[in-house]
Amino acid sequence: MLRSGLFSAALLLHTVTGISGFTVTTDTKDVRVKENQGADLKCSYSGDFGANPRVEWKFKNVKGSQAYVVFDGKPTEPYRDRAVVYGSNLRLSKMTAKDNGVYDCEVSGNGQFGEVRVTVTVLVPPAVPVCRIPSSVTTGRLATLTCRDNVGSPSPKYKWYRNDVPLPMDPHKISGFQNFSYSLNPDKGELMFSKITKMDSGDYYCEAFNDAGPPQRCRSMKMDVRDVNTGGIVAGVIVALLLLALLGFGIWYANKKGYLPRKSESKPKPNVVYQPQSSYAEEEDGDFKQKSSFLV
């Protein structure tokens, strides 16, 4: 009974698949074209969609933004001067790195829908990469050297050189590099030293490359790795202490000489006692004379 049910389900699935013959295909699944040249994007479909199916082309760039290239049988405004529709196919001219992405051919008709995808890569050689290399690093510290090119398409990969010798991906597997401790990221262009040593000193440069043209390299720059300057640190501390001592002496001397303003001291107010004036005034000869009299 179970076997009979499985057979019936398989037969039904086969019948539905056989009826559904709506197919959309392409023979240009991956297109690679040089910069400023043109390319043909092919799209074909089965006759099940009817005599006049609706064909549209959509584009999604590498950042995920999506837009119509062909809508209602006509190129949209951004592509009007460089897109041509012939049948269900699309021809683009003067292509640049902005055209990198996927193009979907969508066909609809007779109540059915189908689509096929074409991936386009515009080939652009790399430009001279921007390298950031520290000129001086202290031993035992983390040091990261970076290299980046935003022009090349497809996205370039990167190689690092030290004293004109290419650095291997895994230094521990190559004779002469076992004592080096670094990590390389060829996709991001990073050369990282987790604990840099004096033997890592040298002239460094980076090279960006892809299959669109010749590689490009940045200018070589020297990175000097030095030990911690203990003597300089001690001398700096001593100088700082001497300056503090000199400052303290200067304040003391200025205060002693009265060059600094003193705080106003509060003086006690004198006690004023009112004494009535005597009715007698002392004359120069010592005699007293009555200055005023009262009549009773």
Task: Give the SSE map.
Layout: H1 2-19, E1 24-25, E2 30-34, E3 39-41, E4 44-45, E5 54-61, E6 66-71, E7 74-75, E8 83-86, E9 89-92, E10 101-109, E11 112-123, E12 130-132, E13 136-138, E14 143-148, E15 157-162, E16 165-166, E17 183-185, E18 190-193, E19 202-210, E20 213-217, E21 221-226, H2 230-256, E22 280-282, E23 288-290
Parallel strand pairs: 2-11, 13-21
Antiparallel strand pairs: 1-4, 3-9, 5-6, 5-10, 6-7, 8-9, 10-11, 12-14, 14-18, 15-16, 15-19, 17-18, 19-20, 19-21, 22-23
- Ranges where pLDDT stays below 50 over 5 or more residues in a row are 1-19, 278-296
CATH superfamily of the domain at 24-123: Immunoglobulins
Beta-strand segment tally: 23
- Summarize the amount of helix as a percent range: 10-25%
Give Rg in angstroms. 46 Å
What does this structure look like?
With 296 residues, the protein is an alpha+beta fold. 15% of the residues lie in helices and 37% in strands. The protein is built from 2 helices and 23 strands. Among the domains are: 24-123, Immunoglobulin-like (Sandwich), CATH 2.60.40; 130-226, Immunoglobulins (Immunoglobulin-like), CATH 2.60.40. It is elongated.
Summarize the structure.
This protein is an alpha+beta fold. It is 15% helix and 37% strand. The protein is elongated, with a radius of gyration of 46 Å.
Which labels suit this protein?
single chain; alpha+beta; Immunoglobulin-like; 6-stranded mixed beta sheet; 2 helices; 23 strands; 37% strand; elongated; disordered N terminus; disordered C terminus
